Amino acid sequence: MSGDETTTTPPVLRVRGVHKSFDGTAVLSGIDLDIASHQVVVAIGASGSGKSTLLKTINLLERVDDGQIFLKGDDITDPRVNVDSVRSRIGVVFQQFNLFPHLSVIDNVTLASRKVHGVARDEAEAEAERWLDRIGLRAKLKDYPDRLSGGQQQRVAIVRAILSKPELLLLDEITSALDPLLVGEVLDLVRDLKTAGATILMTTHEMSFARSAADHVVFLHQGVILEQGAPDAFFGAPTAPETREYLSRLH
Ligand code: ADP
Ligand code: MG
Questions:
Q1: pLDDT tens for residues 195-211?
Q2: Where in the chain does DSSP place strands (E)?
Q3: Among 19, 31, 42, 52, which residue has the most ligand 1 atoms within 8 Å of its CB, making it the best to mutate?
């Protein structure tokens, strides 16, 4: 190995040869993926193609059967790894049920930074208020989640995730459960995160968002990345018949 290679910063995420089966059925069949710092990678594909399972292996909610996943060079699939410590480095937002219903907005968003990362309450709340102000929800910080719209809840969930300063943010169909009118406000916040320098792996069915906001698009089909590329090339001239078929069904 040359000196250059040893001193190069590793990508934020490196997935190598990941395989995962459930009850003998292969769901991920050799996934390779790199995400560099500040990149937004969007994973698309039909329901059941393995998108959520991929994100779960990265967050160690599922163990890989084979292959390795590195977070900034650390092999997080090593069985000796401390799962909580890995998870504290990764922010995750799912389709729904992200907030604690019995906690106010401000407590929801500051809990992890205070308890997991040891940030003082004043400091955590000051930063939370800046973000809530930015998304127009400062007036709601004492409210409970059930007083917020789905779109507001998801924006609060995203703010909660980024307040822990994750090295990687995983967003799994965060707008799929929302009224179409509320999708835009959530995706606008993801754009803000990108501008702020976050490193993001997300799944979505919002192709116009993927096309305009992604740095790289990967198409999963039956547990493999069948096609990938920069958004303009990917959407402008998809080559695999399965990709064309998938994209045409969305219109
Ligand atoms: P996607 O997110 O692309 O819709 P998933 O990763 O959720 O796909 O699921 C891929 C396949 O794996 C599906 O057939 C699903 O039923 C199956 N699967 C996912 N999780 C489990 C599990 N915990 N046990 C058994 N099968 C699962
Ligand atoms: Mg899914």
A1: 999 999 999 999 999 99
A2: 13-22, 25-35, 40-44, 66-71, 74-75, 90-93, 168-172, 200-203, 216-221, 224-229
A3: 52
